[in-house]
Specification:
Blueprint (H helix, E strand, L loop, with lengths): L1 H14 L8 E6 L5 E6 L3 E4 L14 E5 L6 H8 L12 E2 L10 E8 L2 E2 L8 E8 L2 E12 L5 E10 L5 E11 L3 E9 L7 E7 L2 E7 L11 E7 L7 E2 L5 E9 L3 E10 L7 H10 L1
Antiparallel strand pairs: 1-2, 2-3, 3-4, 4-5, 6-7, 6-12, 8-9, 9-10, 10-11, 11-18, 12-17, 13-14, 14-15, 15-18, 16-17
């Protein structure tokens, strides 16, 4: 047996066998305000952690645009150690999407009496469920908050990142008391106050937009962004009463998974037009 093992090692050395190159990643980022970053070969983004609470406290997904190909998030965070605005400059991609206190690029939240009821904290802990070169699965935990006078809610957000897709797969589990069911909305910030919206798609179970960069505070951006949510079981999609979000909704019971996808693209990559983006969204 030992001879077989030694021969195997020798053969691997001679053939130059290497571990598969990663096409996805996700990790906790303690060096940058408790961010939790995700990425594949087409898209990247982050969730806000405890150290950033108040600046902002928001469940929103912060979309990062990038050119197709290699993973870049670790290099961008490394650059940000010397220049805090590093990833707001174009290094084959950048952070040029405005989240503030919103659903950002595809988060979800309870919708009660026509109002989105955000968590009172950012995510506070996480678990890595699977971590392979071609697949990562993680869960972000949001502690219980008072969504209304009668309803207390907590959230476990499970996200699956796979290569070669503009979309990530989400399974949000809301645990709540004070109600038999809750309406949960997955959505996208339309940035009405910034006037960046150029076009949008609103069809059953899908909301998508095509817009100019919504955060140009560091440098201007001449590319276009596509952002979308897909809720396969939802029968409708609509604009919220305040005009801030495009959403798809479902009624769920406590502990019942709310499954959907969120995605994004950049016109400097392979998706050049709103029509291109909408075709991708429709196929999800």
């Amino acid at each position: 047996m030992r001879k077989i093992w030694m021969l195997t090692l020798a053969l691997l050395a001679l053939t130059g066998c290497k571990s598969p190159e990663a096409t996805v990643m996700a990790r906790y980022v303690p060096e940058r305000a408790d961010d939790f970053v995700y990425e594949n070969n087409l898209v990247a983004g982050r969730f806000y952690g405890e150290a950033l609470e108040g600046n902002p406290t928001s469940p929103g997904i912060d979309v990062w645009v990038k050119l197709p190909g290699k993973l870049v998030a670790d290099d961008w965070y490394k650059g940000a150690m010397e220049d805090p605005d590093y990833y707001h400059h174009d290094h084959g991609g950048k952070d040029c999407y405005k989240v503030a206190v919103s659903l950002g690029g595809g988060a979800s939240a309870p919708l009660i009496d026509g109002t989105l009821r955000y968590p009172s904290t950012n995510y506070r802990s996480y678990d890595m469920l699977e971590e392979r070169p071609d697949k990562v699965v993680f869960v972000l935990h949001y502690p219980a908050w008072q969504a209304s006078d009668d309803v207390a809610v907590s959230l476990d957000k499970q996200v699956t990142v796979l290569p070669d897709s503009y979309f990530c797969i989400v399974e949000d589990t809301y645990t709540f008391t004070g109600a038999e069911t809750l309406t949960i909305a997955a959505g996208v910030n339309r940035h009405p106050a910034l006037g960046t919206l150029v076009d949008e798609l609103i069809i059953p179970g899908r909301y998508a937009l095509w817009e100019h960069a919504s955060d140009q505070s560091i440098e201007p951006e001449d590319g276009m962004l596509g952002v979308a949510v897909v809720v396969p079981d939802a029968e409708t999609a609509r604009i919220t009463d305040d005009g801030v979000h495009g959403i798809c909704t479902l009624e769920v019971r406590s502990g019942e998974p709310f499954r959907y996808l969120f995605g994004s693209c950049w016109s400097k990559g392979e998706v050049k037009t709103a029509e291109n983006w909408y075709e991708i969204v429709k196929k999800q």
